[in-house]
């Protein structure tokens, strides 16, 4: 009798495993299919869409948001959220711009360092004081914006013309054979590759997923939940910092009011990619797809050139919702 | 040094927001011993082991590991020292693979990166050793509760731990799986590991445990060797009663009521016809009369819960219909079923039963709010009246009706949920594993309550994995297998043997279920 | 804490009351502290006129935050409130020719409809609230601008409509009455009605609520519709007060204020609990801080930093205890 | 107004000339009027306009400029958000041979005639200065001033403050009692003003707002507090939008410095001159007017 029981179990287990795999594949594919459709549409409709210049532009323009979305991916995988990223981009930007005169390295380290430290504060308050991430990072979003304004006395900080190396970071390119890749894009790709490795091949990465799966279970299984929490928010801060430095370098200025609302764009990219806000499922590949999908939509708005700003707003919301609904339907199959 | 026990707890004290949960509890585990921990629901067993593994902070007392005082601040610390627990509520990671669940926190690495190949093969080996055929790469969530429980146990024993705690590990295991577990425990024992074993099932204790520590109301009662301790004496220790106060016949508290209900030949009170739902239910037909308790048996995953949910309108069916008092019901949601007079006590208290942050009062009256309110405004007086009467009647132990239900022990939570339905005065009650994880005292109370209800004319469908309960409690037993009714036993035919045969092999003795073979 | 222990044995139904509302006391204490400190250190702060101003200015936030509290109690969130305010504002301003009554009715209907739309997508399609309402946050403002003839500012002069934002009855501004009424109704709704119980039950455990016969869909859709309605009302008040509809700016970022007020007031974002009065206190805390800063001439930049710190401290005092 | 998308026309090959307009944001009546003026003028003269909106974010605006360059439009009108940060796209436009015309805000760094063709617009510091000078004359150098600031960190706010502060520097009896952020909105202007009236009461004799919207909010607050705007308290601001002129007519407001958003005609005139190869000055400054009681009634009909 008992043997019979076990066989039934494992038979149905296989079926479920298959279904689970197919489901998660489709879920990711939802955004990918949309991305491909949008790209084909654009290529057919706009003559200049497939030029190297346009495509490089799209990537470079979104490299900073891409870094922020990458940090957000880690945070969301743990089931958390980080609303402070936009403000951290601004803080890092003004600090880096202010110090750009002392050399690229100093500016880079200081900018990323400040944002990392603020991210660490987020993580520490969430982990130690046990306050919900939404409210902690909301407070940080307000406070960091205030700090950026205080630090700059509400003015824009310019990068000295002499700071060539620093300016080069955001504007320069490397020539790789027939292609020339802007530095920010290079940074973006490297960051995504590294993050992929971290998520899939390090304990920190796996524990990030575990936390989003069930924080209580992870805690009872002996995971140091606090440390992982600290880690993801610090990482998110660091990546926002890197984005801020790149932004300052690209614009040649550090603006205390830069990157307002980026947190929502980053969350949208992560979710459109297929990562669940409840955590535990998703990954960097999904986020990249989500990022590019949203980027192409903006690119199309600009290529189209006549859609009124209000209709653009309406369309953005509708498209966001449509992609998520389609994904939702697919994953129910 | 050598006569110091492996792990000793002394004078443990724990308060939950001021309320004493544990007070002066002593317990010790020797090397190579299986030590049982028993007590009524809410006696403090789970709390004690959570203190032992650092999941909770204690408010007093000492914990000594190999004679050395330890102070675990988290389960992580405890694991590092070789104290590992498998907790009562299966607490694993649903989206992660089986291998990841087993190795979480100590994933094998090469050059700093996780070595997936090794992790999967090691996990496979561990599972194989436990006689389990599970793909280590499967997401845990794709396994059923029993297999998840086995994975949790595999994780627990794979640590090479000194002390392994198992908190009600068998509550959702089949007999076969239980016997695998016994083998594992014996192996651990031979290796000198100390095992703490919590269970409400006495036969298990006598099979596998060496000594027993009894807790009552958060206090230490006694530690005794199990050999030579009579069952009835153990129950006396748990309940704090004298031997002569406990006069009962049979293993359960079901009387011999079903003689009364048996001969009624009226139309059935509830009839579910040809329920079909995907591959999970295949033309299931069940019926029950007024005052009748119909048992439902089956292996894990055989479709009993699915049947119950379908009758209750919780899941949509592809085909089939439910009749109550011969009237067809139009069920789109549980709300419709409740309005018609059905009630359903779920098997998964935590996920589908309690609203953890709400009080006993609010949980108890949740389903009955429409009756207790006029124009949507709830009468607090009616509420209090009902709550007080049911708390008294069912002997619900809580500091007050306003205590959060999450703070109650499992058994008391179950009673509140039962009361949630009883105060609706339903016509037909579906009970899914009503006594799972319930202590022997409360179990008896619940069983006799079910009996009483049936005697007063309520129809009951009782799903249970405890054969004793089915045999003694039901006037008819429907046996399910692979989503079909494969047998129906009545009256004198009902025996554990026959049920087991039907569960495993399809239709055994007794005529087949009405619809089982109807296609 | 020790009195809780003493009460433990006593039993009785009354006991839970204190525990139930305890977190609000933390926020209330913070509010009293802020009021006292300001009365001492801020010249002209302790003054009937000033308290009237504070209530006047806090009214729209409170209306929105009450809706937010109900939404959060079901375990959801509503980011779209600001855009819904803009939609209501645009509808009212463009339809004023039909008369103030009809314009208000149309505007509130549109706002409630927008909220119900959120609810249907969230409950029926099972999409996460933050995404659905984020989409409406983006689109809604677009819609409001399309409605207001390409984002134009629409000034108007209609005394009966403007009464909503400028009227005074017995020395008390109309919107303060509206606010008090809404808070009172919401408190009653949450404490005394079956609907209120369903809201917290759904937030506490949705699956269990459904099995207990709670109409989960209906409850959620209602809650989001109410949030839309209240946002619409706030939008109308704001519009009437300004004497013009500004679809771009009405309600901008108010969702963050409302969420902060709710959480500072003691309603956890995880759902399953709602303290409407706490939300009122939370909103007042934020308003008193802002007013105090402006009156003391503290620069906007610093006020951000200090405000954030106060939010964290207020939430910290009330965080749930862990074992 | 709906034109064929960029697809079919494809670059400069078609008959129509395609001009890009990079707008910094579309919030508020001023920006809307500016956008509309540009679009109307383009339509009138038969240009195809590719419109992009940076939603108030410099980084987005840089991206939009890059997109316009990648599309190879025939010319670009740029209404920059900030004075700095556009070297990259200006360089790209230059390499692609696309002329860029700055509108309404000047850049620091890039040179007219080289990095861009010319600047058409107003001078925000100058606006603040004109307001300050008028006020000094009006009050004989004696005033208790409330300054309602534009969005914190925006260069318009910084410039209008700067110019104003410079103008009143030499009058020791003109004091800014309080300067608070009103975020360029009527609602916030009203709220902040209410609180400032509470704090400073009768010492307030002047409200200087960085835009008309905030001034209109402040007027509401003053009226509610029983203070007579336009009489007890002088209200002045910048922009010259219709509702402000109406308020001046009604005697509730005293003056507003014009900042004319209607760039369309002069922008396209300039473009056409450029195409004809005419020499252009590095700056074409709009002749902004000053509105007060004397001329408000006359211009209210044509205000935006
Ligand atoms: N987190 C908590 N907060 C408040 N009280 C709690 C908490 N956890 C447990 N308790 C209380 O502590 C007591 C002991 O509970 P515990 O879960 O240890 O019982 P148990 O012996 O394991 O019962 P069961 O057999 O039902 O599992 C109970 O009265 C319970 O109400
Ligand atoms: N792998 C699984 N993942 C998620 N849910 C599952 C899984 N297996 C079963 N379930 C759910 O668990 C419940 C129990 O399943 P089912 O009715 O098949 O078993 P049963 O005979 O009631 O056995 P038991 O209740 O003893 O587990 C059902 O609601 C089913 O949908
Ligand atoms: Mg227990
Ligand atoms: Mg079951």
Low-confidence stretches of chain D: 1-14
Distinct ligands, ions and cofactors found in the model: adenosine-5'-triphosphate, magnesium ion
Query: How would you sum up the global shape of chain D?
Result: elongated
Q: How is the quaternary structure best described?
A: heterotetramer
Q: What is the helix tally of chain D?
A: 11
Strand content of chain D: 15-25%
Q: How many individual domains of chain A?
A: 1
Task: Characterize the biggest β-sheet of chain D.
Answer: 6 strands, parallel
* Biggest sheet details of chain A: 2 strands, antiparallel
The best one-word shape of chain A is globular
Describe the strand arrangement of the main beta sheet of chain A, using strand numbers. Answer: 1-4
- Overall SS class of chain A: mainly alpha
How much helix, percentage-wise, in residues of chain D? 40-55%
Query: Which series of helices and strands of chain D comes N to C?
Result: HEHEHEHEEHEHEHEHEHEHEEH
Span of the ends, CA to CA of chain A: 34 Å
The overall pLDDT average of chain A reads: 88
Helix content of chain A: over 70%
Distance between the termini of chain D: 20 Å
- Supply the CATH class of chain A: Mainly Alpha
Could you say what the CATH topology of chain A is called? ABC transporter involved in vitamin B12 uptake, BtuC
Overview of the structural elements:
The complex is a heterotetramer of chains A (333), B (519), C (323) and D (304). Chain A is mainly α and 333 residues long. Helices cover 77% and strands 4% of the residues of chain A. Chain A has 13 helices and four strands. In chain A, the strands form two sheets. Chain A has a two-stranded antiparallel sheet. In chain A, strands 2-3 form a two-stranded antiparallel sheet. In chain A, strand 2 and strand 3 (179-182) form a beta hairpin. Chain A is globular. The model of chain A is unreliable at 1-11 (pLDDT under 50). The model of chain B is unreliable at 508-519 (pLDDT under 50). Chain B is 34% helix and 24% strand. In chain B, the strands form six sheets. Chain B has a six-stranded mixed sheet, sandwiched between helices. In chain B, strands 18-21-22-15-23-24 form a six-stranded mixed sheet, sandwiched between helices. Chain C has 323 residues and is mainly α. Chain C is globular. Chain D contains eleven helices and twelve strands. Mean pLDDT of chain D is 88; it is low at 1-14. Helix content of chain D is 41%, strand content 19%. Chains in contact: A-B, A-C, A-D, B-C, C-D. Chains A and B meet through helix 1, helix 7, helix 8 and helix 9 of A and helix 2, strand 8, helix 5, helix 6 and helix 19 of B. The structure holds adenosine-5'-triphosphate (2 copies) and magnesium ion (2 copies). Residues 16, 21, 39, 41-47, 88, 407-411, 439 of chain B line the site of one adenosine-5'-triphosphate (ATP).
